Amino acid sequence: MHDLKTIREITGATGADLTDELLAGQEPVVLRGLAADWPFVAAGRKSSADARAYLKGLYNGSEVIVSHAGPEAGGKPFYKEDMSGLNFDYKRIKLDKFLDLLERHEEEADAPFLYVGSTAIGDCLPAFSDENSVPLGDRRYIESIWIGNRTHISAHYDLADNVACVAAGRRRFTLFPPDQLPNLYVGPLDFTPAGQPVSMVDLHAPDFEKFPRYREALAAAQTAELEAGDAIFIPSMWWHAVDGLAAFNVLVNYWWRQSPAFMGPPNNALQLALLALRDLPPEQKKVWQQIFNHYVFENTDETSAHIPERGRGVLGPMTDENARRIRAFLLNGLNR
């Protein structure tokens, strides 16, 4: 690995460290020991067999989606060389069968890529959270589990804020601030390995001739290795690459948004902007940039103060009613 800056740490972290200030902040933080008292963490510290037995004891029999590829993938779900497709496949199997599959290949140096990603814990392990959880107050979060062997997940961002707990094994997190987008050489927006755009640069063997600005990204990067029981807070929109370093790894994470549920994903606006704005003549693009700044990015109370309150429509506070009005307007326009 490159000589990167270390992510700030809180040692001996407890739920009391999950303050509103930290969880609404824009700085990543490693929370050493946050999940150290989880019964599942204790099982995994004994052995991977004990960890698998713990999960099987809570399993409700539902199927999970497994990403898989041969050893040639090197544990990295990515694109084929010619971008004609992805270098891995999906299949649905029972979770206990997947755990058996991991065990079968655990001692192999050249093991296939096997990964259950972003699976809602309540769908397959409904009682897991009764004994293994972190206190996030009244935040409406999504709780997911990630299980696999040695993996290398390319740098990507998530819209949600994220507390991720290493529950078994070891993981390395490498983070890039949101402003490094131009230096990460991001791939397609609509054809992605797992739903989010990813950096096309191999973190472990970057081709600086092909991707020269990646040196700047690495200069801004931060990294940390987490053991079982450790956690990390990753703010919204921070790019992060994640390496599973053990033959058996389990991650539990919690996602939430700092916005009302009726607000749509900003990526929808990006896709519409590509459709309606990107290829306008340069002078018209400048005008629309000013319009977006006025109504969106630099919006203040004065933006619509000259309009009587009852007549402000979508320029008023973004309520559920206004959100429905905007969606209806968009659907009407897109269906023409």
Automatic annotation (TrEMBL):
All copies of domain JmjC, residue ranges: 94-271
InterPro entries hit by this protein: Cupin_8 (IPR041667), JmjC_dom (IPR003347)
PROSITE patterns associated with the record: JMJC (PS51184)
Pfam family, one: Cupin_8
Gene3D superfamilies reported in the protein's UniProt record: Cupin
Name this polypeptide is given: Cupin-like domain-containing protein
Species, as recorded: Kordiimonas lipolytica
Upper classification of the organism: Bacteria, Pseudomonadati, Pseudomonadota, Alphaproteobacteria, Kordiimonadales
